[in-house]
Amino acid sequence: MPLSSQIGNSMSVCLARHALLSIALAGSACLGAGAAQAADANGSFAIRGIGSQTCATYVAALAKPEEFTRYGNWLLGYATAHNRLVPDAYDIIPTEPGVDFPNVVAVVCRSNPQMLLENAASSAVTAIRPLRQTAASPLVQVSADGKTVSIHQDSLKRLQAALIARQIFKGAANGAPSAAFTDALKAFQRSERIAVTGLPDIDTFIRAIVKR
Predict the structure, then answer these.
(1) Where is the Peptidoglycan binding-like domain (predicted)?
(2) Across residues 145-162, what is the average pLDDT?
C-alpha cells in the first residue's frame, strides 16, 4: 500500500487518541533542546524544502493524499537522518515509521499551527526519544483481530517488560507475539481509555513507557 494511503487511512483515528495528544505538549516544551544543535554561533540554521513550511500547511495537506505523499516522504527522510546522525538511535520509532512518525508530527502541528514543520519534527523526535531502539533487531509481525503490524523485536520486549511490571502481562519479555500478550495489550489499552486494538501501536508505547 502506498505511503499516502497508509497514513491517510490511519490519520483520523490516530489524531483523536489521548495518548498522542500528550506529544503536542511534550514536543513544544522540548523545542529549545532541538534548536540547541543548530549550526552557527547564534543557534540558527537554514531549513530547506518542505520543512520550511508551517504546520498549518502540513495539517491542511493531510486531507489531500496527492499532496501529503510529499510531506510524508520528507518526514521519513528526516527520521532517517536522525537515525544516521544521532548516537544511540538505531530507530527513533519502535513501530511502523511510515504511519506513526508523520502522525506524531501532525499532533504537534495541530497544537502549534504557526510552527515550522522542521521544528515540529524536531519536537516530536525529542518527545518520543524514550521509545527509540538503540540497536538493530529483527522485525516481527504482530496480529490481532485481522490486522497486522511490524515491530522491532527488542521494542516488543520492552513493551512486554513494561506490562509485566504493571502486572498486566503474565508471560515472558521475549519479543514473541502470543494470544496472552494480545489479551494483555487489550486490557492495558482499555484501562488507558485508548483504542483497543490488541496491537503494539504508538499510542500504547507512549502510555506504557513514556507516560509512566
Answers:
(1) 154-205
(2) 94
